[in-house]
Each structure stands twice: as structure tokens, then as C-alpha cells.
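In the previous chapter we treated chains in isolation. Here, by contrast, the input contains two separate entities that must be folded as one system, with a combined length of 609 residues.
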Amino acid sequence: MDSVRKKAKELLDNNTVNVIIGYGEGSDNNVRAIFIHKPEDVDKLIYDERCVQNLAFYLMKHEVKHKGKLGIVAPLTVLRTILQVASEYQVKEDVVVVLGVAPDGGYIEFNGFKDIENYIATISIDLPEKEKEMIKKLEGMSLEQRWQFWTKQLSRCIKCYACRATCPMCYCTRCQVECNQPQWVTVEATPLGNLEWHFMRAMHLAGRCVNCGECARACPLGIPINLLTYKTVLTVKDKFDTYAGTTASMDSVLSSYKTDDKENFIR
Amino acid sequence: MNIEKKLLKPASFEKLVLKLKEERKQVFAPVKKDDLVNFAEISSLQEMTDDYIVTVQSAKSVAFPKVETLFDIQTTKEGVILTDKDINAIPEIVMLGARPCDAAGFDSLNAIFTWDGLIDNIYTTRLKRTTIIGISCSKCDAKCFCTSLNGNPGATKGSDILLTKIDNGDFLAEIVTEKGDTLVKKYSDLFETATDADKNKFIADVPVKFDVKTILDNISSHFENGLWAEQSLRCISCGACAYVCPTCACFDIQDLTNGHEGHRKRSWDSCGFSLFTIHTSGHNPREVQSQRWRQRVMHKFAYMPERQQVVGCVGCGRCSRACPVDMNLKEHLINLTEEVVK
């Protein structure tokens, strides 16, 4: 981590960036996102197994974005998210300096998004084992069992939208659930309203989810909602042979078409 | 009323739950599921857990549920028929295992739902039909700060009966209200004469972390303090804190219609959402999260004390536990105290 801190200090010292977004000690052994403005504060940056929040979210947060040029401490999920949001024109290459961090805390230098793409190409992308197993279990269920599973899980939802708020891919200034003329999705947190919300969100994330797991981690009621979008990750891989967050110039699979598409209906 | 004390032995406690169920009362208690403890309906005491500091969600939903139908709507050839919610159908509930902070939270909610003589019939009826049997806290964690808000882990306020587990496993029952007294009298064979056990020996020691009076006296003059922006830079604008809070009472009202029939429904809302204040014109007076964070703290420590003469926080620490980005209210209030005495 010392090499990351050194780089962060250098970037702040020579005014290459105005702020570094990274992980720091929080309250009661929690880790929290910290924003370093002064070179002498870089020692507050940490990286260990507790650092799981997807910091890429802050690249699109109004107050952070307006600080000017940003530096960001980026483990793999953050790197993938940056590429994905870049492909959606949400983050420009010239306003962010990415300080790559290896699993052991070492510094990985990236000169631009192309470098990140090359690095990610060397890593085999897969879902975490635990989630893969759960998805397999769900796939093995009958339609009725699966319906029961999700109705039960989602009935607990209180619609605090922590899942949406923490997801870097949920950057819409006005979410579909907030469009009320007409009201597409029921506002109330009832089993039906909750199903509508989470299924809609999963569809909007299909081909875009980088399986960072933030939605499930943020849920105060421990609903494994990441399984919904993780399933779309597998489907998109299967049907389109692609993973989100591997290139900064990808067309979204659900909002683009190709004239040589193998499906007939699209011609 | 004077607080009378009785003794409730574990076996009698079990019987009490069964008796209440026999009377078709709904009994809610903390239940552990998937490692999370929340209030759920139980049919026997065995289903209740004592392995919790506080439940993830507060007890408020017993009187202020996440969704409430206010009235039904029917359109006919003759016109629109509105039918008020049948408050007589509201069930009798016994809320078991609410913590003293949870029970204290109802003070703030009552102040809001009866503010300025405007009585919310649904809320008040729900609470009137709820008997709160609180249980004192024998343990606390770093997120607890009730004692900084004039509460304490053995406080009786808000409970109808407060139970404190003493060393031999029996419960010391303090009968706080008439509602509690009625219940104890009804099942008098289950309650025994209290011993002289000192309950203070069995409750958690929650250290006082800040002087709330300093905050209450000074917060209003710190509206423009840079602290709000600094604290909330990592806040992600979700509603987790508000939804688990025992005193947050903001709601949204929507009509849900299907053809000629529909319902007007009230759902929880949060001042942390940008949509909460956005105007039809598109202008948003609380445009950025720092303004919304300030509103949250100001509402609890300036506006509620001013308007309703209650503080809108009981120090349960739920918001800090639920927060996905470690927004820690206790810590932020300590910072605030330091800032206002500068």
C-alpha cells in the first residue's frame, strides 16, 4: 500500500488531481470511503480485505465530481466499473487518474483506460463461488419453487433503495420507479411492488452488472438481490459472449443491435 | 402512576405468551432469521431470541407500518365513494422485547402523529391497541448512545411493562402504565411478588458520549457550517437510516387504482432521497446530499424540539448499523458538539 500512498502523494503534490478517493479506517473496525485533499493525509489510505465498497460510485456523485480532477484507489471491481461507466459516457478518461491496487495492496500503474482493459484481459472473470452455487440451486428449482423463493425474500424489502443508491451503474438522475405519470412501478413496499422494483432493476442492469455485490452488501435486511443481476451476468455471457466492465468502448447488449445478429427477428 | 414491581419466572413467561395467543392477540417478538434479528409474529416464546442488541428494524412499524391503506376508492355512475379504513379491524398486539430506546421512540412518533391537535386515527388506534412489553438491555455495542439522549438501557418510558432479566433467569417486571397493569391483573397468577433485586446491576453500561443540550442549544446557528458537506461526502442518498429509525415518520401518499377501484396508501419516505423535495418545475431546494444530510440532523435536533418539544433521536444507533457506507450518527454528533463549542 506504501506505493499507492506514494503515488497519491505525488498526484496531490503536483496538483494532477484535486482529491483522491480511497479507503480509510471508519468507526468500530469498519472501513469507509475517504477523500484526501492534502498530500500529508495520504497515510490515511488503507487497503485490506475489509475494503469492499465500490468506490467508483463517487466518480458520479455530484459533490465529488465537482471537485475537479479525481484520483481513485481501484481494486479489480472498481477498475471494471470504471470501464463500464466509461463505455456509457459517464466518466471521461481525462478527469480521472486510476491508482490500481493489486489484491496484496501493491500499486498497479495505469496510463489511461486502454491500460486497464489490457490488465483486465489477463484476469479470468467469474462470479464468486458462493453466488454461483446459489444460482445453480435456484436454476434447479421448479418455477413454482423459484417464485416462492423470490416472493419470500423480496417481501422483506422496505424500498429504502440502498441497493440502487450504492450501485455505480444506477446513476440515472431519475429512476424508472420515480416516473409517476404513469406510475410504472408500484411505490408501496408490498410483495408485488417489491417484485416489480427488483425485477425491473435486474433487467436494467443486464449486460451492465460487474458483480461487485454492492447491492446485497448495502441491503439492511440481507436480501440476496445480487443473485438477480448475477444471473443476468451469466445469461449475457452465454448469449453474447461478453462480460461487462472489460472494455471502455462496449455497446450495451440490450440497447444496441448488429446487422449480422444471429437472431432472425431483428432483421 | 407509581411503578409497581412483580416477578415473572421463565415458565410463567412462556405461559403468558400462550395465553395471549389463546385470546387471539398477535404477539410480536425479536426473531432471528438468516443472522438478522427482526420483530416477527410468534406463537410461542421459544421462537423469540435474546441474542440481539437491537433489532435491525425498529418497533415503529407496529403503529406506523411501511405501507398503510388510508381509504378505499370506488368510482360508480353516481360518483366517487370513499370508504375510510375500518379502524375497528386493527388487531390487538403485544410487542415483546422492544428495547427501552424503541419504546422511547414512540414519544417522538406520538408528537408527530398528534401534532397541533391533528390526530392521526390510524396511528393512534394502532398504538392504543398495542401493549409494549419492553426488555432492558443487558448488553450494548459501540453504536449505542441512548444515555447521550437522556435515555438509558433500563428506562421504563414508553413501555407498558418493562422486564429486566436478573441473575437467576427470572424477570423483574415493572408495571409502567395502566395498560400494563390491566394485563398483569388479568394474568395475575403468572406474576409473583418481586424480590428486592436491584435491576441496575443487570443492565448494560452505555457511556455518555456528548452533551445533547449543547447540540440543542446551538445547532440552529450552524445551518451554514461546512461540517454538513464534509460529513456527508461519502453518503450515498439511500433511505436505510430513515427506514430503520424508530422516530423517522416521513411518508409518501399515493393512489393505487385498478379500473374503478383503488386505495390511497401511505408509504415510508426519506428526506435523504433527492425526489423528496423536488418541485414540479424541476427545481430542488435540497439539491445535493449535504443539504439533505443537514436536514436529517436538523429535523431531529432543531425542528422537532422546536415544533413538537421532543428530540427526534433516541440513540439506538440503528442508522449507523444499517448504513452501507459507515455514516455514524454518534460520531457525527460528537463532531457537531465539538464544532458548536469552538
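The first strand of chain A starts at residue 19 and ends at 25. Residues 129-240 of chain A form a domain with the Fumarate Reductase Iron-sulfur Protein; Chain B, domain 2 fold (CATH 1.10.1060). Compare these points with the single-chain example from earlier in the chapter.
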